[in-house]
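re: that chain from earlier
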Amino acid sequence: MSSDLSPPSKQPRVAVYSGTFDPLTLGHEDVARRAALLFDEVIIAVAIAHHKKTRFVLQQRLDMAAEAASRMPGQVRVLPFDGLIMDFCRQQGACAVVRGIRNLTDFDYEAQMAAMNRKLNPAVETVFLLPQAELQCISSTLVREISQLGGDVSQMVNAQVAASLKPAPLQA
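^ sequence. v structure.
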C-alpha cells in the first residue's frame, strides 16, 4: 500500500469553441461566455477556412474574437486553427468541443459532426450550448447580408464588429 496521500494532479478542463466567426456575433459571444463558466479554460479556435470566402481575413477575425474574449470571465484564449478540430483538440489538451445550437437544423448537423468527431477522438466530448433566446436567430451569414444592404446590425454584434462591418466611404 502506498503511503503517498497527496491528491492526484488535476488537469485543467480545456474546451475548444471553433468556427470561422465571420463575423463574431453576440450569439457566439454568449456561447463562449457560458462555456467559460463551465470549463477551466476555453479556446476560441478561429478557422483559417481555406474552403470559404470570408468577409474578414483571419487576423481581423482573430482580433474581433480576442477583443470579445478580453471581456469574458475565466481564462479564454483565441487561437487560429487549420485542419481537423480533433487534431487541434489533441494538440491543446482539450477534453471538450463546445458547439452553439440555435435550432433543430443546427442540432441535426452538429449531432452528425459530434458522432464523427467521437470516432476520430473518443476522449473529447461535444457539449451543446444554446445562446440566450433573443440571440438564437442571429447567424454570421445574416449579419453579413444585412450589413451589406445597409441595415443596422448593432443588436447582433458588438460595437467593434459593427464598426468593422461598415463599408469604407467612397473616395472621390
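The beta strands are 14-19, 41-47, 75-81, 96-100, 125-129.
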